[in-house]
Amino acid sequence: MTFPRSVDEALNDLAAAGPDAIPVAGATWVMRSPLRHEVMAPVYVALSGIEGFQRIDVTDEAVSIGPLATHDALAQKLPPNPDLKALKRASARSANPGVRRIATIGGNICTAAFAASDFAPALLSLDAQIEVRDKAGLEWLPVLAFLESRKSRELPWLVTRIIVPRTVRLSAHERLPMRKAGDYPCAIASVSIAVDDRGRIHDARIGVGAVEAAPRRWQNLEQALEGQPVDPALTETAARDLIADFTGRDAVDAPGWYRTSVLPVLLRRAFETIRTDYETRAS
Amino acid sequence: MNAVTDLASVVMDLPRRDAQDKLTGRTRYTIDNIGADMLHAVQVRSDVASARILEIDCSKALAMKGVRAIVTHADAPGLHGIGVADHPLFASDLIRYHGEPIAAIAADTLEIAHAAARAVLVRTELLPAVLTMAEALDEHAPLIHPDWQRYELLKEGAPRAGNVAWEAHVTRGDTDAAFARPDVTVVDDCFRVGRQSHVPFEPRCAIASYEDGRFHIQCSTQVPWTVRNVTAKVLGAAASRVRVTVPAVGGGFGLKFDCTIEPVAALLARKTGKTVSLCNSREEEFLSCLCRENAEVRIRSAVTPDGEIVGREATVLMDCGAYGGEQIFLSTMTAHTLGGNYRLGAVKLNSRAVYTNTPPNGAFRACNGVYNTFFLERHTDNICAAIGMDPMEFRKQNVLGDGDIGATGQVFQGDVLRPMLERMEAISAGAERRDPADGRLYGRATTVGTWFVFVGPSAATINLNADGSATLVTSGVEIGSGTMVQSLPQIVAGILGIHPADVIVKTADTDASGRDLGVGGGRTTVSIGSASKMAAEKIREQILEIASEMLQTPPSGLALRGGRVEIAGRPGSGMTIAAVVQRAEELFGPMSGTGNFTAPGVPSLPGCAAGHFIDAIDIPIFTVHDCEVAVDPDTGHVDVLSYRVVQDVGVAINPRAIRSQIQGGVTQGLGYALHENITIDEHGSMEQSGFEHYLLPLAQDVLPVEIVLHEGAPSIGPLGAKGAGEIPILNVGATIACAVARATGRPVAELPLTPPRVLEMIQGHAKALDFAHISPVWHANLARR
Amino acid sequence: MTIELTINGEVRTVTADPRTALLDVLRDSCRLTGAKAVCREGFCGACTVLVDGEAVPSCLRPIGMLDGRSIVTIEGLAHFETPNPVQQAFIDHDVVQCGMCFPGMVMTLTAFLETNPAPSRGEVKAALSGNICRCTGYERIVDAVLSIQDMRKVSGR
Ligand SMILES: Cc1cc2nc3c(=O)[nH]c(=O)nc-3n(C[C@H](O)[C@H](O)[C@H](O)COP(=O)(O)OP(=O)(O)OC[C@H]3O[C@@H](n4cnc5c(N)ncnc54)[C@H](O)[C@@H]3O)c2cc1C
Ligand code: FES
Ligand code: FES
User: Fold this and answer.
1) CATH number, domain containing residue C98
2) Which of residues 438-497 of B touch C (CB under 8 A)?
């Protein structure tokens, strides 16, 4: 185990140990590798000593999040503004309190094998930018591009920062566990929209998680909602009309058809939250 | 002797004596006693469901540094079982399920043992696997036990054939005539349930040593005597050479009512001469869990327009997995559960325990009673719908009452269920309807249930100490339910007139106490309690006799109270019990008493029951459950809005502890009803191997259960008590299912009611069950010998 | 690797593979067996200890990352003869059954009440969503927590 103090040191440590080494953030995923019947990586490069990695900076323009910010820290530090609601809720509702105190946002979005991430759809809907460092230098990637690059990018690399831009928008995050809380959701919908003067949806961004193996945006629905009123029922109908866009993932926790069946319901619920916030803002 | 003991001196909300240590992390369960100073064992398990073993090569593993011994079938050739000895400790020529132990390794560390396990080479020839009961019953199905006819029978008289490990039949009256009556409505249903995993927080584990030519096994079990006997049987040793001791047990729920890994540890201890620990990992604990079995039923009833059940026929299939185990015994309980609750005209029941190439199942709190009650109560609601009768009225009219006969012809005593139903009706009528009126579908249901106390042999010894305290020695185990620290000392203390804190309760040690069937089946308070009561009463008599002479007062004029023998009506008079003990020592020595108990045996109608271990139930227990639910039509989530229980307890010795059992049991039932689900994949392995996929109820999933303890029903238990810990789970699946059926207007036929299953049902996509492998002709389902 | 950390107020040096879970160090090396290994995947909470005052699952904490940290386990929370108010409430309400989950429950709730001394029923339940109990059905645990009058006694450790 190494304890680099900087990103460069970390990349060096990772490069030096080659495939034997992995970066470790909250360790809540890597410590479970024996349960997944995976071999534990011989070398852990602990990122916790890297300056600024825990930091969360909130301004009117953007939220800058260090990759080691825990779910809990985010849930507490993020302001309650509607534009950030999706992220705040993803932070506060995923996993359980003990895990939220140690699991990090960076570890969450870097785990390519994890289909039910709450952060991935939330960040998709918020159009976040991911700062990635590797030996070639620094690169800013839109979330989707980052998520898609995870398995193919040449090692070593690190997520070093996450930027969530802020504008006047409304957002929401809806997840559906099988119990009331505590398990991985079987479907997740994150939504962020702008609303024009006439009360019409503009530039909707919808992130969908857990339904398929990888999270993604639902562009057809985003387009269908352009210019529409903020109407939960109408959104649900539109989502049902377009549901063929998804092929639900069959897994032990839920069959694929169920995930696609409930996804429109989650969109309705997300828009119920958004409508409430919209009405509050209007009055 | 009841009269001499004032019930008021026994009944109390005695708090648990073990709480402080449990809360401060000081209690050492078996798992906490595993340490570096012993060898660590792991089992090599099969990764296929069905195969012939061609060769087991341990040489590489044995050569590894730190590996101390490897054992296989050759070291333990004996077969054990319930009813039929069909189960080897390790697979010999055939592998019959995914995860079956093939060998076990003891090594200096767990890591070495695991590495050695990977180095054991098992060469196999794959055989076709029979993964479902439908496949197993196919006439061309391969035999899972080709040698079934040669197995030693431990109990005679049951039909068996091929993949049918056991059958229990009830035949009373002429059902053909009943179904042929022109005035009856015939209601025909199929139902199905999945497996439930116990998930005790302490997994099964054992620490064994071989001392002075005898085995000593410390283990996390509910049945020290079963561990002793099975270990002896499979190791070919005399039972007297096995000693079993049991510290606090971290949950059992029936899983630890069987002997599983203990003989393996013992075998390795003898082979190495060292202390050996063997502990299931959580994954192993799941994958080898002796679950509440999956089951299927076809049931039909002939009912008159005014709601009389004149005929009933049912065939239940119980999946025993690869070995018969508890399912063989439990086939008996269909008669008393599916055949229970209601007065029946003619009745025919067939309960078939079926072999499959899947992990063996076992006993889980109220066992098959839970799903038989689900089957019966849903069927009852379907009957009510078919004849247009109110379900509450139907139940009040038909529940068994005083003098009514049950399925096997046993005569029931006392009106219990009907007054309990009336109590529930009154409570529910007085409570506000909790329909959230938010677009979700609202439903409410009331169901009834019958369970029993598993009585049978127990022994107790009490030593009265010089300081006036008493030491109670039994084979009871404290698994969490509190009987060992609450009702037993309360009973003994009440009889001896001392405080329960002055009753020392010895933890189980088969070298110190007499034989016992174990802790389960709600039997501790009743069986061990009765033996303890008898032992205490013998001591009481001795005390009174000696004191009578010392105080020159006839025993009838004396009372035992507050650690003293007093002259009745004169508090503070007389002498301390300690003084009596001192006198006794002068006269004849230290005072002790022994007690024993066994099932008294209640008659059934001769010729009615075949293949049964219990033809009639000695102590029936009844319960009435009621719940309200809201079903989300969009997602299929079921929200339980209220839950009420009226439970027959005979006499509540520790009412608070009983309420705790009810809250906990109902919660496990909610898990069973709604989201606990074990499924078998195409390789024959369970798909849920941890907490990520096996969904236990969390704090947010439960609600406070409203509880009424119904006292006064007849019971042969000590002071009129009954077991209270098993039955709380009995009706939960049934009640939720009936409420969901009413909320959705859909015929709920399967548990658990996971959101996908409920949504499928609401959307009308759920296929009606109609089992091709259970013939509608009842006789056609009987094993042909 | 050698790690120096404080366990229940005592400075200790542990030599172990840094990837070893804190839970295993506590149970196997320190023989502090109060924290239980039940799921080893962050769901059950039976292994909960305080790391620098925060209640976290010790099964998911590699020991190598804890150099210089302060750990409090159930054994170090209070002397067993003077239980803390959470433990006392559980004794008074007779809520314990098999007991395996309780060390973790006590750790979680003690830390929780320090930050939220007057919680609602719903908040207590939400705080327990990572502490599973197979025996009790939770409600009486929640009743006991809500009965605790003097929260200062909890934080006055
Ligand atoms: C009980 C439980 C319940 C959970 N429930 C949910 C849930 O409901 N919703 C949800 O979204 N998640 C849930 N999670 C998942 C949890 O969020 C992840 O385990 C966690 O986010 C991983 O974060 P970590 O910091 O612990 O990562 P680690 O385990 O430290 O790392 C995870 C992976 O990411 C890599 N990595 C970490 N940081 C970086 C970095 N900066 N750059 C490059 N690679 C990196 C590591 O090498 C490793 O491969 C749950 C987890 C548990 C244990
Ligand atoms: S053992 Fe750590 S959370 Fe379950
Ligand atoms: S008391 Fe047994 S797990 Fe909670």
Assistant:
1) 1.10.150.120
2) 479-482
**C9 and C33 co-located in one domain:** yes
Of all atoms in ligand 2, which is nearest to the CA of residue C47?
A: 2
Q: A101 alpha carbon to ligand 1 midpoint, in Å?
A: 12
Q: Is B700 within 8 Å of A179 when comparing Cβ atoms?
A: yes
Task: Report the nearest-CA residue for atom 10 of ligand 1.
Answer: A117
Complex-level ipTM: 0.97
Residue type, position A39, single letter: V
- Alpha carbon B359 to chain centroid distance? 18
Contacts of A33 in chain C (CB under 8 A): none
* Residue listed under structure tokens 């068996």: B160
> Residue C59: closest CA among chain A residues belongs to which residue?
A31
- Mean per-residue pLDDT pooled into runs of 10, chain A (283 residues): 97 95 98 95 97 97 98 98 98 97 98 96 98 96 97 96 97 96 93 96 98 97 98 98 98 97 98 96 86
Does B144 map to a domain? no
Hey, are the CB atoms on A1 and C59 less than 8 Å from each other? no
pLDDT tens, position by position, B226-258: 999 999 999 999 999 999 999 999 999 999 999
Q: Is B39 helix (H, G, I), strand (E, B) or coil?
A: strand
Decide which of C49, C77, C105 is a domain's last residue: C77
Q: Which CATH class is domain A52-165?
A: alpha beta
Neighbours of C149 (CB within 10 A): 9
Q: How far apart are CA B76 and CA B432, in angstroms?
A: 62
Distance from Cα B697 to the centre of ligand 1, integer Å: 24
Q: Is the beta carbon of C38 within 6 A of some atom in ligand 2?
A: yes
Coil, helix or strand for B345?
coil
Say whether A163 sits in a helix, a strand or coil: strand
Count of structural domains, chain C: 2
State the first-to-last Cα distance of chain A, in angstroms, to the nearest integer. Answer: 55
Number of domains, chain B: 3
Parent domain of C58? 2-77
Q: Which of B533, B562, B597 is the last residue of a domain?
A: B597
Collapsing DSSP to helix, strand or coil, B245 comes out as strand
Of the residues C39, C61, C77, which one is the last residue of a structural domain?
C77
Q: Are residues B311 and B267 in the same domain?
A: no
How distant is the Cα of B670 from the closest Cα of chain A, in angstroms? 11
Could you say which residues from 131 to 190 on chain A have a Cβ atom under 8 Å away from some Cβ of chain B?
A: 176, 178-184
CA distance A50 to chain C (A): 13
pTM: 0.97
CATH number of the domain within which B302 lies: 3.30.365.10
